[in-house]
Amino acid sequence: MVEGLQSLQQLLGIAERPSQGPSPSFEKTHFVLAFMIIGESGTVGRQVLAARAGLKEGPARTILKKLREDCYVGSNASGCFLTRQGKRVYETLQARLSSPTVVEGSKLTVGDFQIGMDIRGGGKAVQSGLEQRDSAVRLKAAGATTFVIRDGKFTIPGGSSDCERDFPGRTWPKLRESLHPKNGDAVILCGARDETTAKLGALSAALTLL
Fold first, then answer.
1. At 43, is the pLDDT very low, low, confident or very high (cuts 50, 70, 90)?
2. How far apart are CA 24 and CA 21, in angstroms?
3. Domain 2-94 -> CATH class
4. Architecture of the domain delimited by 101-207
5. Residue 12, Cβ neighbours under 10 Å: how many?
6. Measured between alpha carbons, how far is 179 from 184 in angstroms, rounded to an integer?
7. Which of 7, 12, 64, 87 could form a disulfide with 92 if both were Cys (CB 3.0 to 4.6 A apart)?
């Protein structure tokens, strides 16, 4: 757990380090999402990475430059990839954060397109869930709902102690099958107008719990 947090702090430190020239037009969440996309993809081209991370090519180029300077990313004719050092950091992040997962047909939060994420051990950091919602909305998401897993049940802080009982539907099995949440975890469900914005919103909300 501590190692995963240190890895995240290292990534955010790279993101926040000043660059030469104009200030890059990306959020720290874009930076972390881009890093995760490279890790998931194995090798990915810059244009594809930019599109999947919701970035223009200039900011994507800046992110890759920063990651190369710290030896987290390498590149060849096929695209960019994580170095051995980058893979170690990616693996520690995976121990804390699930990959953003598409959740279709959910009515548990607002937004046409919804993404779920599991934050392992993140339940202890959840207060009212408003901080996660506000963080997601800041990145143009429509909204986000935060659940905490207690006694094997989805709960809402200050609300339902058993969401599957109180709000029955097909989404709960999907969340269990795709995210495999365990006691003490937090689960974020974020909705937005499109997949990329929903991913950014979910990740932004998740980062508040680390």
1. very high
2. 9
3. mainly alpha
4. 2-Layer Sandwich (3.30)
5. 16
6. 14
7. 7
CB 120 within 8 A of CB 185: yes
Q: What does the domain layout of the chain look like in residue ranges?
A: 2-94, 101-207
20 secondary structure, DSSP code: S
* Alpha carbon distances (Å) from 193 to 53, 100, 119, 142, 143: 15, 16, 23, 7, 10
Query: Encoding tokens for residue 145?
Result: 């709902």
Dihedral over Cα of 109, 110, 114, 117: its sign: negative
Contact call for residues 204 and 136 (beta carbons, < 8 A): yes
Beta carbons of 186 and 123 less than 8 angstroms apart: yes
CA angle 51, 57, 62 (to 5 degrees): 115
Q: What is the pLDDT of residues 162-199, one digit of tens each?
A: 999 999 999 999 999 999 999 999 999 999 999 999 99
